[in-house]
Amino acid sequence: MQIPQPYLLFLGDVTDPLSAKTARGIHAWRPETCVGQMHLEGCQVSLGLPELTPAQAKDQGAKTFVLGTANAGGYIPEHWMTVIKDAIEAGLNIASGLHQKLVDVPELVALAKQHDVALFDVRHHQPALKVGSGLPRSGKRVLTVGTDCAVGKMYTSLALEAAMQKLGMKAEFRATGQTGILVAGAGIPIDAVVSDFISGAAEWISPANDADHWDVIEGQGSLFHPSYAGVSLGLLHGSQPDYLVMCHEMGRPHTRHLPHHPLVEMEDCVYLNLYNARLTNPNVQLAGISVNTSNYPEEEAKAYLAELTEKFQVPATDSVRFGIDAIAEFLLHQVN
User: Fold this and answer.
1) pTM to 2 decimals?
2) DSSP letters of 195-211?
3) Is pLDDT above 70 for 136?
4) CATH number at residue 161
5) Number of domains into which the chain is organized
6) C-alpha count within 13 angstroms, C-beta hemisphere, residue 248
């Protein structure tokens, strides 16, 4: 999926900033791709971008109108349809990460065809895929993995890409989720891929490259999450990573959404991820640990990170609170 940029970010009428996480993620990581924002009456979220109509955004170079919010059920509210149609008539492509498909709305399909624009259902799109081969390929790859889902794998991957580029490394973020795809403008929604093809999809998004080129691959789920371990394992094999970055939330008591399932010990999680990654890359190593420490005082967080650094002999940091430069520098020194 290759989504034309720049974007006009649609905020709808959301009142909760978390509901606009897609738009916020794009603006945070790719501000240069954001021409402006548009909201409906009652919206209480702003990105601080110019407020534009689709026609105004088109005049300023926008190419795609992004539905930048999520709602319960992932459907397209009926009262959004007028705005979406206005965007199509203004000549903008439409991109959505919602469960409901744009292409399942006949009037949108007909209107898009009439105005020669595309409808991008980010959560559902995938190219024709092959099963994974496990064949060695050139280039360097680092994959974010986790003790659980929703522990910052996308944020860590994007922060690591930026830090590596700052060091002069040829690094490129590879998106595997709908928000990451809209941030990058390309990628594949790995959780929508049929299980037999997950490792092949991971090979597809991180193909052979120059010896000094790094793919920073966005991880999904966790090997220890009963619901999502399958996608995590497929990504681990297909990515053929040279390095892993473990992501974690300090103090999380149990697996997300499963209070009956205690969170895995970090040591066990590191071991099993490395063990399974060796199927396609026998030389894989741990490069660092990225921890969300936001629920703890700074001194307590620093002490915990220092303990992890000592235990695993790799940099441990909170990539939001303290930055991720130490992990980027670790990777740089491994190849120099």
Assistant:
1) 0.89
2) GGGHHHHHHHHS----T
3) yes
4) 3.40.50.300
5) 2
6) 27
